């Protein structure tokens, strides 16, 4: 039940306006717009992956509607890190106006630029690092290091005369990170002392009690599993998880194994990460996949994509014996990743397939081979206590996550009225230390399907769900335009419905009779005749088979 | 990759043949056929619930094919307990021959008979209890009490001259069960001393280390949550979980609350359970739902279905404000159930909806409000050590569960060659203490959709998946039968595809041109013309939109 939309007032001078376009009430398509003095700053521009009630959709974009008439006012897009849910929609925004500058860390921009290249866009970009300050129109930006499941993530502090805002991006607070790059609590302290007027904070794990375990706790497990593996090892993880891949490379090197990277995105991202110095490949460990196949089984590790059971990814294809590498008895497969809700059945199908082939499958359910990239409740409490923000806007999460995060803020003493539970499109104005909801835009889901952007509507998806659950029956009748008499048909075709069109022999005379009756009464209108066909066959299929397929009547005049 | 089917030999005299028809490589539709001396005994006859790649399917039945010509040889169907995955397919078997006797405990038969009544079948039935022995043709049956998440579950020992078989049904070994009815390990010991030749054993939780916690560990949690709840309490669980409902009734009574049951199956099952003495309703605690609404908020508990996020069940409807009871701030909702894989997104949608309405949602993720009904690895080890079976056939589970169970058997010293990893349709012969795979039937999925049984094929489901992901485009052209010239059309209609049929204006001339060309070359065949239409529009949609909808060309001669 989204809030009823209402227009915000004109933006007053000296006020900062904040409008999240995505990422609230969902995990993905994070994007927030800041407006001051007639200029707009965008923080993040990500995609959301569809759920099962959005069939056939490739990606879901934030609704850019509030930006469309104001593209010239956008001073830049700050990207906090290189995950798809933060950078994936950049190409679609830049298709509206290709010279909007993008700002981010070295790795973040390299990953974004690789993505833009696929869309044949070469962006204006500015690489920044933690500690750096930049002015973009009226916005004074300061970047702060944060720790996440991808290197080089940044939080961003935004200063305007209306106050100081801190947006964390995604983060956690691993106190012994592999690359030594901590979430910079000294910077948080300094900003807290200056006075944070509004804190936009990652809520993904706000309902998880305690603390996210150390990323380095996984290393010994990987080391032990790889060390004891009798034959080949296949590790699947996210293709941007540089630190996870680093731990696999190190474990492989320690046990005299070489590593072959599999999957287009894994190869691309790790090449970028190595080139930029984020991935440290032990001397001679990487090997081309084609050469790897000549090595003895106990000297190879394959590092692949497909940890979410994606049917076209390397791991699923291996499990279906539809890949050059065919797992077998003695092989070890490690799923070093989370299990994103909704993917369970797909992942378990892959685990079963691999088990059936004889492989030993190690996963989150039976070994400590994954930790989250997001701050749990205990870590968030540290943040609130260090920052003591005046106002809090929990972002990045389903409603229950946002609510849990607001409660944590309140537990540290922040007034419930100053913890804002917003939705996508909520308009929040900040001035003189006060943050208030002043409007609600009516935003939708923008679906990407193939090269189509925004043409698939929710009505189309409803049709798809009906078609997918019940199939369709089409009835074609050619009638004489003047007499209304049937010239040809009724032909009845069905797909996704039953094995044999012979079941329709019963109903054809009923349709013909209904049309003849209508013709006799002088009905000539094509639409009216179509409705007669629809009702006749609809009633029959519902009563005789207790089913409700889509019915597509086509009455053609000739 | 199912095993290649091959025919078993004729069944030799003195040999027991075992054929699982369902429940192996899947969680559901449990059913096993035993054959001796020309007679057949069936143990369980359940349904499987469809996954997301089986859209629109209501239920999946075991493939009865091997039984169809031998219905007269069936001496009876033993039902181990009253869950859908053990009794749900009985009506469909009895539709083939309605006088096959069914045998089970009081509660099991009552639930089965209620189901059969909906199908207007009144069965021949025989109620049995633990300790009881019955002869059915050549099969000497002995029933043994087991503990499970429904009362009155039974294991069954089957004696024939070929040896002694023990089938557990579903079970766990709660050592302090609420009703005091333990899994009878004394009986297991006695059978073990007699010598169990083949042990068919529940694998559902074989890959879960340790022991399933006590059902009664939930009571204090429910008591505490209900005791502290400021307003209404809504508890959702499985409609057959008598003990869980019992604990809710007790907690409600302890805190001066009354309980209203919601949902057709909840009402039906609990009425049966109370009538048969399995549910002990504290004096005056139950109240009709309509009267409950007049009570003060802090004196009511609603007990409902819908714990798996089923869209039509009470809980989802409440979350969507589509039910007379509208949850709000201060209300407490308890999901006292497991989260079945594949249902995560649906359940989280319900949790989010309820949270957004202001309710406090207590679930497995944040409180100890559910324990499993199946024996974990530690419990299974006890069974193997007490029974010391000669041969083991793990049943009830995905392949990884069967495999984990076989490994447990091997850990207790059973020869790997005597732990049989079978599939549905595997034919196993038992004689002289030896169990051997001798054949493999080629079995399929039998889909129920509406009143249609077995007519939906895998090809229909593939069509549904394409339709559901991509929609369809139909092209209708009426041509002159003799000249091949277009009389009417092409008309192009699409559903689930794009918002506006105007996108097809581009392609219509291309179709007309392709057909004109074909007519010129003398092509008249309707099928050939249809293929030309399909190719023309298929190429266009793929190249211009990068999509692959189903294409339905209809060339009509007039």
Automatic annotation (TrEMBL), chains A, B:
GO terms for cellular component: cytoplasm. Zn(2+) binds at residues 81, 83, 85-86, 148, 170, 396. GO terms for molecular function: 5'-3' RNA exonuclease activity; RNA binding; RNA endonuclease activity; zinc ion binding. The active site is at 202 (proton donor), 374 (proton acceptor). Ca(2+) binds at residues 56, 58, 449. Its cofactor is Zn(2+); Ca(2+). Its EC number is 3.1.-.-. Binds 2 Zn(2+) ions per subunit. It is not clear if Zn(2+) or Mg(2+) is physiologically important. Binds 1 Ca(2+) cation per subunit. Seen in 1 crystal structure, it is not clear if it is physiologically important. An RNase that has 5'-3' exonuclease and possibly endonuclease activity. Involved in maturation of rRNA and in some organisms also mRNA maturation and/or decay. Homodimer, may be a subunit of the RNA degradosome. Belongs to the metallo-beta-lactamase superfamily. RNA-metabolizing metallo-beta-lactamase-like family. Bacterial RNase J subfamily. This is Ribonuclease J. The lineage of its organism: Bacteria, Bacillati, Actinomycetota, Actinomycetes, Micrococcales.
């Amino acid at each position: 039940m989204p809030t009823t939309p209402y227009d915000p007032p004109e933006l007053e001078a000296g006020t900062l306006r904040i409008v999240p376009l995505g990422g609230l009430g969902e995990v993905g398509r994070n994007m927030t717009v800041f407006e001051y003095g007639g200029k707009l700053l965008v923080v993040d521009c990500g995609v959301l992956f569809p759920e099962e009630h959005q069939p056939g959709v490739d990606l879901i974009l934030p609704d850019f509607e509030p930006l469309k008439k104001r593209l010239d006012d956008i001073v830049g897009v700050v990207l906090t890190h290189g995950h798809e849910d933060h950078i994936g929609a950049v190409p679609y925004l830049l298709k509206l106006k290709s010279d909007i500058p993008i700002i981010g860390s070295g790795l973040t921009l390299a990953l974004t630029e690789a993505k833009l290249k696929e869309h044949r866009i070469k962006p204006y970009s500015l690489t920044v690092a933690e500690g750096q300050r930049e002015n973009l129109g009226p916005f004074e930006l300061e970047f702060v290091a944060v720790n996440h499941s991808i290197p080089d993530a940044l939080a961003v502090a935004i200063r305007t005369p209306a106050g100081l805002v801190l947006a964390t991006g995604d983060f956690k607070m691993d106190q012994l990170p592999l690359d030594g790059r901590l979430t910079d609590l000294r910077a948080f302290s300094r900003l807290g002392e200056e006075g944070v007027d509004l804190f936009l904070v990652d809520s993904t794990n706000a309902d998880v009690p305690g603390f996210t375990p150390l990323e380095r706790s996984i290393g010994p497990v990987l080391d032990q599993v790889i060390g004891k593996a009798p034959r080949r090892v296949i590790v699947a993880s996210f293709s941007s998880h540089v630190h996870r891949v680093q731990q696999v490379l190190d474990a492989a090197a320690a046990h005299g194994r070489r590593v072959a990277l599999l999957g287009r995105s894994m190869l691309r991202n790790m090449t970028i990460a190595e080139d930029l110095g984020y991935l440290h490949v032990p001397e001679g460990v990487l090997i081309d996949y084609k050469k790897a196949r000549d090595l003895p089984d106990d000297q190879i590790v394959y590092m692949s994509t497909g940890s979410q059971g994606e049917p076209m990814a390397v791991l699923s294809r291996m499990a279906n014996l539809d890949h050059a590498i065919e797992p077998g008895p003695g092989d070890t497969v490690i799923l070093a990743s989370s299990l994103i809700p909704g993917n369970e059945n797909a992942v378990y199908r892959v685990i079963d397939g691999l088990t059936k082939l004889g492989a030993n499958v190690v996963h989150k359910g039976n070994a400590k081979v994954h930790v989250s990239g997001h701050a749990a409740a205990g870590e968030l409490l540290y943040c609130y206590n260090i920052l003591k923000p005046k106002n809090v806007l929990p972002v990045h999460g389903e409603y229950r996550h946002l609510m849990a995060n607001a409660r944590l803020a309140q537990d540290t003493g922040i007034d419930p009225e100053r913890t804002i539970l917003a939705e996508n499109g909520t308009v929040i104005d900040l001035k003189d230390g006060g943050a208030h909801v002043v409007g609600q835009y009516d935003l939708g889901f923008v679906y990407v399907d193939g090269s189509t952007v925004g043409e698939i509507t929710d009505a189309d998806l409803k049709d798809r769900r009906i078609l997918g659950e019940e199939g369709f029956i089409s009835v074609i009748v050619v009638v004489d335009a003047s007499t209304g008499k049937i010239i040809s048909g009724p032909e009845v075709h069905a797909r996704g419905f039953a094995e044999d069109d012979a079941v329709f022999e019963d109903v054809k005379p009923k349709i013909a009779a209904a049309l003849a009756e209508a013709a006799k009464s002088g009905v000539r209108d094509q639409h009216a005749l179509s409705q007669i066909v629809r009702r006749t066959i609809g009633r029959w299929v519902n009563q005789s088979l207790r089913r409700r397929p889509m019915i597509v009547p086509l009455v053609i005049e000739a």
